[in-house]
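Protocol step 4 of 6: record predicted structures for both targets in the notebook before any analysis. Target 1:
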Amino acid sequence: MLSGLASLVGYAVFRHVTAGIVAATTAIAASAILVDTMIPEAFEEAHDFAGLIIVLGFLAAFALSKLGG
């Protein structure tokens, strides 16, 4: 019930905003998931290389976004 209500409010708030604002909001949500879930798990598995792997992943995503458009 709460999830449905949250999606209705989100649609009502974001239906008239620009694509850039939606993209920024999505990026913030994705980074929250990354920080909360994925980084601790990566740190457990690859303790010494976790930071390097994360930076390389962000650089790869940045480079691909620049190549695409």
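Target 2:
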Amino acid sequence: MDSRTLGRGDAALEVSAEGLGCMGMSEFYGSGDEGEAIATIHRALELGVGFLDTADMYGPFTNEKLVGKAIADRRDQVVLATKFANWRGENGEFLGVRGDAQYVREACDASLERLGVDHIDLYYQHRVDPKTPIEETVGAMAELVAQGKVRHLGLSEAAPETIRRAQAVHPITALQTEYSLWTRDPEDDGVLATIRELGIGFVAYSPLGRGFLTGAIRSPEDLPEGDSRRVGRFPRFAAENFQRNLDLVERVEQIAKDKGVAPGQLALAWVLAQGEDVVPIPGTKRRSYLEENAAAVDVALSADDLARLDEIAVGGAVAGDRYADMSTVHR
């Protein structure tokens, strides 16, 4: 597995060219299997996929414990990223978004304990708190760096002006947001241009369109009961949008067939081709999918391939918003 560098100068962090999103191992995408999840993380490390992504809210709280258990005897092989700010209760209820300094400190200590580590390599604010100035949040995160609890700082789903204000407080290593063939917002909303101007790396979550771009989901009924994609959290999986989005996937499948690769590998190769500062973190909880995803780094796309994909995935080609109520997302 090749490596890429997120950030520059003192903020530079070398990571595997592709990471592993661990969220689905614990929540949101049907039931989990801890044994297979841990085996998947171990296989990822064997393949050189050492950039692991988790968050305190996943589970809630259980995903960090799972990741910590998996890496307990191989911490030196891992670039470990986790997140705070999505505030949840012990019963899983969502309580809001917090970025106040006290919460930042408390959340970090709790994550370190659950992960069983003495430092976090990349610590993200998961969502921007509309009630707390970003300067206060990043200031508290910078204190964690000074204390040695955190090595590098990141933001998630932040807008250009927020990113600039954060960078003025402390160097930001990475901005994480959704980016894929069917989510090209960062190209249009100024995020990619801003982070490249500032020398901040880009971490693309949901690079497979929450599994849709793999071609494995042919109808909403293919998703397990209780799966968040089936119960209305993601409008692109809703019945009124599903067929239009499946039409897009079928066009991706045709190009993948022409190249002799899996549709998901083609989708990941497209993200990887968007720049050496872009690192996708496809999520999976099974070794078979992990191995397929990791092989995407060897898929070379020609200028013609990229042109064909761009023609398919133009703005407005996808039906439905990314989340059920995008107006609630503060950036």
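Step 5 preliminary note on target 2. The longest strand covers residues 150-156. The chain is about 35% helix and 15% strand.
Proceed to step 6 after PI sign-off.
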